[in-house]
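[agent] plan:
  1. take the single chain provided in the ticket
  2. run structure prediction with default settings
  3. attach structure tokens to the ticket
  4. add a short note for the reviewer (M.T.)
[agent] executing step 1
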Amino acid sequence: MSEYIKWFNELSIDDVDLVGGKNASLGEMYQNLTAEGIRIPNGFAITAKAYQHILNDNKAREKLHTLLDNFDPDDVALLQETGKKCRDIVYRCKLPDDLIVQIKSAYEALKFEYGEGVTLAVRSSATAEDSPEASFAGQNESYLNISGIDELLDTYKRCLASNFTDRSIHYKYDHGFDYLKVHLSVVVMKMVRSDIGESGVMFSIDPETGFEDVVFINASYGLGENIVQGAIAPDSFYVHKPTFKKGYRTVLKRRLGTKALTMVFDDKVKIKNISTTQDKQKRFCILDEDILLLAQYAMKIEAHYSKQAGYNKPMDIEWAKDGIDGQLYIVQARPETVQSRKNNTSIEMYSLNEQGKVLLVGRAVGMKIGSGRVRKITDTSRLDEFEAGDVLVAKTTSPDWEPVMKIASAIITDSGGRTCHAAIVSRELGIPAIVGAKNASKLLLDRQELTVSCCEGETGFVYEGILDFTVTKTDLTHLPTTQTEIMMNLGNPDLAFSLASLPVDGVGLARMEFIISSSVKTHPMALVHPEKLDEITKEKVEELTYAYESYEEFFVKTLSEGVASIAASVYPKPCVVRMSDFKTNEYASLLGGGSFEKDEANPMIGFRGASRYSHPNYEEGFALECAAMKRSRELMGFENVILMIPFCRRVEEGEKVLETMEKYGLKRGQNGLKIYMMCEIPNNVILIDEFCKLFDGISIGSNDLTQLTLGVDRDSEVVAFDYDERDSGVMKMIEIAITGAKHNHRHSSICGQGPSDYPEMAEALVTMGVDSISLNPDSVLKTIQLIGRVESKRINS
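[agent] step 2 finished; step 3 output follows
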């Protein structure tokens, strides 16, 4: 047996001290998961014993001690000087002859397995890396497409020297590791030719929110280094684990990235970036079948490591698709190190108390808010200018910048996705970051005051000035359990996973129109009849839908995935989705909407809700809505989706809507489909018994019910003083509706603004016997506490 070489089939996760985390994990997977269909390139580890052998043989340890003992890594200039000297010492070491013989022998065996032309990935593997407490990701160097024994031996020494990069030295210092007791092993494995394929990073958990029911996948063309460096905005995808395990094979959610650069090999400089063609930028870089296979890999890897650990163990995984054989490979897996360490017994929510001018937007990281003065950093020579509390602004960040990143109040980068270096480090440090904020380093000025908000969904906002904000922390262990179901109102799919930890009984109102306006952006009828659009509008629609086979597919997939993302956040609890309830002026503001909407004097009580669905002016658009809902329930597996009809004026209109829905594949009762009605028109209350014969439940829309009961236009500021959901007449209408629903054995709920704004209204609803109250997310926790007290008082009395 070789002392300095260990093949993957000889290694397991218990061998971290011998071969480092990366090698140990590759060996663990190679031994246990290749039989389950997961492809892992073969290779071998040059052990940590070899590293110690080299240092001892060259008497290098004493020289390193002299440099590293009693020096201050927080002195950036001294850190840079010391790191360079340490690297020089290690790189100049002569490799012992016995070690060279063993490396040559292993290399020849790998060539025998894969052919004479095989190229190699040579990667560092530290003995303290990839634990739940610390991740050495990005701290040490890796080299790709290596060929020939001389090149292999040289890159091996370069990997060893990288144990003393500035970032690695400082990381060891931050985490209390002895500089000379973190040894380096090296991975030597078959190179997966993703330079002519695709590659990326995936997590078996949402890395941003900690939501455990999804796999998150990033993907780009070429080598994956662009994703890690944050040089590009990659494509991103989610797959929902519970429905996948039930046999549903669909992508939960997708987001198109620009992927402006493709990293490839070049004979002269080894690696270079080339511009990605416009056609490839505007298309998703991998097919759904690849996404689903990767998700399956991630679930199997997580299951294996979780079983081994005895607790749920989310994983951070690197993958690559070989452009020669077309196969997907796993090239690294390590424990996720941020969300897995979070305390889940409390919830912390950030909210802005004032609004400011939006300067920039990008991808939000961290769900927090930070503010301070801008400090632009262009390279490592300027790191010593950075002061604690500054907002770090850069094109991208690198691991060398971590000493200043940890004292920043927030971070903003020009490019990058949610798995780039800036995003990963920001999460680990608990600092809000916005990545992919185009031209931030040019548009923002040094010492400019600004606020970085990452608490408003997947989009992060950079506001001018220092804005006031609130942080609310709630202990979840002491929340009461209520008999009245507490649900939440949620229209934005980008917020769904961040709110999944709220202790709610489901989503009581998911507004379809929000998804249409923010993601589809186009009037449904414009997608059915593009021939009615002018040329400029057609071009904009074509740009939006380029990555899809047809306009209809774009609408159906985008809407169904938006709804499914909300439904996934509470799955298998109910998610009540209201069919579109735009007013004509709102429809007209959508792309192409002007060609299909007429001006109305008062759109609030005009052509909206149920009246549109079977009308010749909109029925084809409603058919698309129905197709999307059918897809989310039947193809994607979200049978927890309940549909709801808004603004249904008359019983006959309700009958006609149900007939139209059935015509387009949504039959009440089939496949467990429930259909509710918004109870928001006085006629709904007066004829509650008749409406209950048609629908499975009612949800009281207190906003419109107040408007129509009091005769107050809720859009008018002039009569705003007369608008009050707590008016005794309105409350009487609500009581009649709840009593009528109970009498007819129908579910009753309320989803208007009132209970969120007025605790006394929520208390009155409990007394009336409402089945569920749906609230804005920021009102959920305090309302649970209030209703718990009300119910306890009623029981005791």
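[agent] step 4 note for reviewer: The CA atoms of residues 356 and 463 lie 6 Å apart.
[agent] ticket updated
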